[in-house]
Amino acid sequence: MKVGDNLALLTDLYEFTMSAGFQRALDREQRGVFDIFYRQVPDNGSFVIAAGLQQALEEIQNMHFAKEDIAYLRSLNIFDEEFLTYLQNFKNTCDIWAVPEGTPIFPREPLMTIRGPLMEAQLYETFLLNILNHQTLIASKARRITAAAAGLPVMEFGARRAQGPSSALFGARAAIIGGAVATSNVLAGKKFDIPVSGTMAHSWIEAFDSEIDAFNAWADIYPDNCSLLVDTYDILNSGVPNAIKTFQRLKGEGHSSFGIRIDSGDITSLSRQARKMLDEAGFPDAKITISNSLNEEIISSLLHQGAQIDALGVGEELITSSSSPVLSGVYKLAAVERDGELIPKIKLSASRGKLTLPGLKQVYRLYHKGTNEAFADLIALKDERLPIVIHAVTADPMAIKQNKLLNNFEARPLQTEVMNGTKLLTSTPDVFAIQKFSKQQLAELPEATQRRLNPDEFPVYITPQLYALQQAVISQYTENY
Ligand SMILES: Nc1ncnc2c1ncn2[C@@H]1O[C@H](COP(=O)(O)OP(=O)(O)OP(=O)(O)O)[C@@H](O)[C@H]1O
Ligand SMILES: O=P(O)(O)OC[C@H]1O[C@H](OP(=O)(O)OP(=O)(O)O)[C@H](O)[C@@H]1O
Ligand SMILES: O=C(O)c1cccnc1
């Protein structure tokens, strides 16, 4: 069964009950501002790589309620006809700002801001979080894995282990944003113009009477790019020697692109011995691909041990981010609008770490003046003009050190307006252009922030004006709620 041609119903019931409630309890045109941000970085990292904007905007643009959707909602006996008519004529009228896909983003920074009628923007919460949390999680995991691979090409091999078809498809795209070079997922290749690549499964070898028969049959069909899986029986005593025999025949016929894949055992010792055997047989250019539940820790360790690797296939650990499988990005109301005036809103909580930032905001990356070296981020109110010297406050309400004098910086805004009603204000760049942009952004961050283990925290501040607003709203609500 298809999920559907749009995600209008892929949401929590409470989004509909609130939306219908806003229509009845408040003015239908009552507007507000929502932010999407997250607090905790998966894998104890210090940032995530934003991803999913393209699908998010497509879904908003395409959002509609078909007759049968309306009929289903009517059958729940919860909603009045006025609300169902509103849904029937639904189209986006919100303004949306977002950081471009590929941007490294730190906790508490709004990676998307939605401003528009509350009853409309409320309906976006669940599916926007579903899309952005998933793709950002996988892009971030892919960045960790490709960073550990230190320039060696990583192919995404995870479709079979992904949590469902949509995770396989959009996960493959996110993997490219995070630095992978290709995918084995053909649908992702077609849909997102990603190079598809791969070798063979053990079933190919097992289907023939012998390993050498299987290799030769493959070589006859694919002589120009012959990559053979050598671990079905015995890598060093049969797999690699048989592969060499096959390559020798192909070489005699004028072919030159050869490779093997190792998918089990001690990858370091096996790859080193396989490399030696291939070199001694006259195949120094034959590529060794490795796979088998790889992740950033194993890859880093293998390289440290001196494994001989030319390429890596990474499946389950990348496509599911299994070591840290949740990004809990949230959708929080930051303001309502009355007569064109923004009234800041806040979520207080028993846990101080969950305190939100009120108002319509922008997030800036701060660079040492005249350089591309970023040293901090600053969250400000959107209409604030940043002074030359700022007595900033740490954005993390749990932080011990609260104040910082910022000067000699150049501030570059991270969010841009991406949608205005039904009008898309951004083009969708090719996924490799997003990868390139992401690498440029990462090159501007301190290396210590990008470290795999115990990375340095990158400072995120808020302006004194935003801090004052936050404190004022806190006092107002603790006195009057
Ligand atoms: N030299 C190594 N150092 C660290 N980890 C390694 C090394 N070689 C392999 N690994 C990793 O160890 C894990 C276990 O590999 P191993 O082949 O022993 O077991 P397996 O996955 O059960 O094998 P199989 O695929 O044959 O079932 C895999 O995640 C693999 O990537
Ligand atoms: O290990 P991953 O990172 O997910 O990479 C993808 C895995 O998919 C294939 O395994 P297969 O489904 O044939 O199972 P097996 O090799 O574990 O038996 C391939 O041989 C890799 O091992
Ligand atoms: O092409 C491959 O080698 C491949 C593809 C998916 C999963 N494992 C391996």
TrEMBL record:
Record InterPro entries: Aldolase_TIM, N/Namide_PRibTrfase, NAPRTase_C, NAPRTase_N, Nic_PRibTrfase-Fam, Nic_PRibTrfase_pncB, Nicotinate_pribotase-like_C
Superkingdom of the source species: Bacteria
Catalyzed reactions: 5-phospho-alpha-D-ribose 1-diphosphate + nicotinate + ATP + H2O = nicotinate beta-D-ribonucleotide + ADP + phosphate + diphosphate
A cellular-component GO term for this protein: cytosol
Nicotinate phosphoribosyltransferase C-terminal domain span: 361-469
A Pfam family per the record: NAPRTase
Domain Nicotinate phosphoribosyltransferase N-terminal: 9-133
Enzyme class at the top of the EC tree: ligase
Function according to Swiss-Prot or TrEMBL: Catalyzes the first step in the biosynthesis of NAD from nicotinic acid, the ATP-dependent synthesis of beta-nicotinate D-ribonucleotide from nicotinate and 5-phospho-D-ribose 1-phosphate.
Family under the similarity heading: Belongs to the NAPRTase family.
UniProt-recorded name of the protein: Nicotinate phosphoribosyltransferase
Native organism: Ligilactobacillus saerimneri 30a
